[in-house]
Design a protein that fits this description.
Chains A, B: Keywords: Oxidoreductase. Chains A, B: GO terms for molecular function: oxidoreductase activity, acting on the CH-CH group of donors, NAD or NADP as acceptor. Chains A, B: This is Zinc-binding dehydrogenase. The structure is a homodimer of 332-residue chains. By secondary structure, chain A is an alpha/beta fold. Helix content of chain A is 28%, strand content 26%. At the A-B interface, α9 and β13 of A face α8 and β13 of B.
Chain lengths: 332, 332
């Protein structure tokens, strides 16, 4: 009988470090498909910074943690290789919460077929968590207006690169903060950002001042770190700060201090934290908003693919080290 | 010819300390009233924490600073003692931006007559800056819901005491943070708050936990200070933080650090800073909201009155030292 690999979470990252000791790989029999079910062979699996939170014992967060012994949570794309469900045909490509496993047995709920013309990578880079998160954060909470200035941290990341391109298409001045010259080059020369700051090598304060002559109206935060205070201090009156990620602090023993709140009053600023699971109910509207930008060729993306389920843990660490160049995907 | 006293700002509080050296008192001739003008004899003048900002050289704030040599800005109530303006009769009691002076010559714009039954103290404590600020902050940004828990800092202050009473009338659990047992007693036993924390003497963390068994949905911030981190850590998912004042930090050389932003994502929290001048256009709606609570006897207030324009500077310092018990008013 044929078998497949499945990776479960068996220990929590108590020191916030991700390593092989947290996981257990099992070799399981490929299950029988019963009436109403489909069997999906996963081909492309998404790796996301949120996974560190999902592994942690934090029942206050926006979704419950993965239980110990459960298959590690992830989204992904796969092919239906066997179907006893009238809604799916063998050969369909579907996207959904697949988990860290080569095969998924499902009743089909939560899985959607890819639209024609949408590749597996485009599905995970644009129409899954990154694109929907960017669309929700920018439009629900950033309220961008033509002619305004937006600063995006983690600007070469899967969400940040989408946010910047959407804002650029809407006529904003778009400045991205990145951690390498290669990423700076990509967002400016490929994606069309108006400027980039390399937080590792630039003099942040003077570079930010130079690139934002009209200061900052929307601040889309994906990273945290020292850049936060500089951007915060440069906000305009009635500015909107959208807090989507704080990857620089997720692994810190002691999270870094935030800015004092006096400027929030003086400048009447709104800070809004959000997480995508609150917004799945808005999926049709979000896709309606996002799709035209993609169809008009205004959204570029790049995947950083690694091979093999056994390398998922290494890929996740690359995300936290900022070593990925594009949306992290595991090809199976 | 009769004269009157007028106090001008002549120096900025560069060290954020308020003292007599910042002001100059002039003895001026009571001016002649021309067509269209009214002469107001100020009887009750308001002192507010915002004044420190108005004195400072900060052109980024929500209203421009008082220029050096200008009469110090304030709101107040007075009696029209001479009128050549058809809209006002001699004897009318009016409220508006009076400034630190005994008499005000005006074309009447920006001055409103007190409604019948409204005393001078009620006008300044309820229907002026404190009440309107409380109403705006609580309803525009706090979105209180029956059964939720709200924590108000500066709870015995002019704004905080109003916020707490409005929220209590709306069926919330209301906890106030104050700086003395006398204030704690007043908000609980006179105003009907569900509990009080004396931040100077209580063990804040355990007292807060005890008083907020269902944690905190709305946090109305008037003070800043160490209490901020405790309340922030106790917010529920989808909590709203309304930042109205940071009086503990206004005079600090180095404003204290704010909380890290990770919980904003996990709990999808909104932080909103605001200042009343943005909302004068909503005055009719705000009064429509606020007035029924007052008419139904749900709003108590207390004024802390001091006598004589020459004591205004001392009164202002009492505010920053937390020594006032009630809305600071100068009686002239």
């Amino acid at each position: 009988m044929a078998t497949y690999k499945s990776i479960s979470l068996v220990q929590r990252p108590s020191d916030k470090k991700i390593g092989p000791h947290l996981f257990e790989t099992k070799e399981l029999d490929i299950p029988e498909v019963k009436d109403g079910q489909i069997l999906i062979k996963q081909t492309h699996m998404s790796l996301d910074p949120a996974m560190l939170g999902w592994m942690s014992e934090d029942r206050e967060s926006y979704i419950p943690p993965v239980e110990l012994g459960e298959v590690m949570r992830s989204s992904g794309v796969g092919e239906v290789v066997k179907s006893k469900n009238a809604k799916f045909a063998e050969g369909d490509k579907v996207m959904g919460m697949t988990g860290w496993q080569e095969y998924v047995l499902s009743d089909g709920s939560g899985f959607n077929k890819l639209q024609s013309g949408v590749t597996e990578e485009m599905a995970l880079c644009v129409f899954a968590l990154p694109g929907l998160t960017a669309t929700t954060g920018l439009y629900n909470f950033g309220h961008p207006k033509e002619g305004e200035t937006i600063v995006v941290t983690g600007a070469a990341g899967s969400v940040g690169s989408m946010v910047g391109q959407l804002a650029k298409a809407d006529g904003l001045r778009v400045i991205g903060v990145v951690g390498s010259d290669e990423k700076a080059d990509w967002i400016v020369n490929e994606l069309g950002f108006d400027g980039a700051i390399n937080y590792k090598t630039d003099d942040i304060e003077s570079k930010l001042a130079e690139l934002t002559p009209d200061k900052v109206d929307v601040y889309f935060e994906n990273t945290g770190g020292p850049i936060q205070h500089h951007v915060f201090n440069r906000m305009n009156a009635h500015g909107r700060i959208v807090v989507c990620g704080m990857i620089a602090d997720y692994q810190a023993d002691e999270p870094s201090a935030g800015p004092n709140w006096i400027p929030l009053i003086k400048k009447r600023i709104t800070i809004r934290g959000f997480a995508m699971p609150d917004h799945w109910g808005e999926l049709p509207q979000l896709l309606e908003k996002l799709t035209p930008y993609v169809q008009q060729g205004k959204i570029k993306y790049r995947a950083h693919a690694i091979d093999g389920l056994e390398n998922a843990e290494k890929g996740l660490n690359m995300l936290f080290e900022g070593k990925n160049t594009g949306k992290m995907i595991v090809k199976l």
